[in-house]
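Would you mind writing out the residues of a protein together with its fold in C-alpha cell form for me to study?
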Amino acid sequence: MQSRKGNAQPRAFPAEADFPRKPVNAAVSGTEEAGAVKVCHFIIIPGFFALVISSFFATLFNEKVSILPLYSRKKWHICHFIQGNYDNSSTLFNEKVAKSLSFPYQRAIIKLNGVFGVKMKRLIIQDMIDWKNRADKKPLLVYGARQIGKTWLMKEFGRTQYENTAYIMFEKNPRMSELFSGDMDIRRLLAGLEIETAAKINPQTTLIIFDEIQACKNALASLKFFYENAPEYHIVAAGSLLGVLTGDKDASYSFPVGKVEFMTMYPMSFYEFLLACGEEGLCELLDKRDFKLITTFKDRFISCLRTYFYVGGMPEPVSKFINGGDFAAARKTQVEILTSYHEDFSKHIPVETLPQALKVWDSIPAQLARENKKFIYSEIQKGAKAKTYEDAIIWLAKSGLIYRIDRVAKPATPLKSYANTGAFKLYVIDVGLLAAMSLLNVKTLLEGDALFTEFKGALTEQFVCQELHANRAPDIAYWANRDEIVETDAGKMKAANRMSEVDFLLQSENNGVIPLEVKAAANLKAKSLKIYMEKHRPRMAVRSSLADYGKSGNLYDVPLYALTVLKEIIEGDGD
C-alpha cells in the first residue's frame, strides 16, 4: 500500500516581477549578531491575520519571530517572515531557500495553506521515490486523465528529489517533434534537450520530464533507446491518452513494450483531501488506525466527507474551494473540466465512435441513480446493442475517465478470469464531477446525512469505487446472482426468485476474495451480503457505512471515511 508519509514542501509563489521591492527597517533583538538571518521567507496573508499568525509562529518555534508587512495588494499583504534575527534584506521568495527550511517551519507553512494557497500532497510521489532509488528502473510512464495533476506531480517530484529538471512539453512544440524525427542517437537527443531546456543534464542529478508525450510518438518510441543505450538517465513521461495509445492500431510508430514502467494517477483520495484541508490530526488517527479516537472525532470526519462528496478530488476544484471556502468556485471549475472533456472527445475520439462515447458518458449519472446500477444500453437509446457502444466504452476506460467494474458469478481468484464482460457497472473518474454532472445542489450539504443516500446512494458507491482505485486495490469486481437463499421474517431460509448483489469484490493475497457491501448513512441492513456469506463462506467480509468501526466474527464494519486503511485491514489480521 502507498505510504502516507513524506516531506511536504511550500508551494511556489508569484514571480518576482509581480510585486515591487520595499526594504524593511526594524530593530534587532536576540543574541545573534545584527544582520544575521536564520530563516528569511515571504508569505501571503490577509492583513488582519498578521498579529495572530506572528504569535502562532512565536509559540511554535519558542523564539523571536516577526511577520512584517512589505506590500499591500487589495486585501492581501506580502509579508517578510523571519525566524531569529533579521536585516533589511528585500530578497523575494526563492524555491531553493524553501528547500533548506527546517521541517517544523515547513510543517507550519503547510498548516497555513488555507490562508495563502492550498498545498497538494500526493502519496504517489513516494512510489516515484521508490522508482528513483531502484538500480534496475526503466523510464516511467505516468497514466491519468486530463487535469488530474500529472504535470504538477512530475515537476514536484523533480523539484524535491533532484538538483535540476529538464522539462519538455510536446504539445504544440514543432522544434521537439523535429528533434525526435531523426535518428535515435542518444547523444544528439541529449544535446537538443539541453539547448531546449537550458539545463545541463546529469544522469544522476537531473530528472528529464516528457509531458504530453502522446503528441510526439517518436519521443514515446525513444524511451526504448534510452532504456537500452542510456539506462542511467532518469526519465518520467506523462500523457493524458497513453492508455488509448497502447491499443492504437497505427503502425507508424513503435510503442516501447517491455522497455518502460507504468504508474497510474487518480484524483486526490479522501486522505489527501484531508491533508490539503490542513486536517493532519485526522490523518494521523488514520495512520495509527486508532479507531477509538476516530470514533470520538467522527463528526469531523463526516463533515469533511460531505464536503469531499461535493468538491471531489480533482486538484483545481479542491484548490478553489480551500483557498476561498467557496463551493460555487469549485462547482464552476468542475463544469469547466467537464466542458473540456467534451472538447477532448471531439478532438481525439474517432469520428465513427464519437456520438456513442458522448451518449455513454452523459448517461452514467442516470445509470448509477437506479437501484440496480448495472449498465443498461437501453437507458441510452431504446433497442441499443452492446456492439454499438463497445468501442466507446473501451476508449473512455483507457483514457482514464471511467472505471469499469465487471460482474462475476463465481467469486474465485483471479477475479478477472471469472468476469462476465457483458454485465458491468460504470463510474466516472471523480465523485465531485459526478455531483456536478448530476446537478447536485449545494444545499444538500446542509441536510445532514441525506447527501449519502442521494440518487439511491450513487455518490456513496462512486466514492468507494474511487477510494479503492486510489489506494491501489489490485483487482475489483462485483457479485450478483438470482435464485439465492433469503431469510424470511420468521428467521427461516428459503429460495426466492430475486437478485442479490454485493457492491464490490476485492482480491486479497492473504484472505482470498473479500466481499464489500456499501451502505448509505449508518444503515447496516445488508441482506445480499448475508446471502453471499452463507453461500460462499469468505474468510473475511466488509461492510462500509457511516457506522463506527467494529468486528463481529469475520464481518468488519469499516467507516466510509476510513477506507484508506482498508487494504491494511484485509491483508493483516484486521485489528
Summary: Residues 323-571 form one domain. The first helix runs from residue 50 to 61.
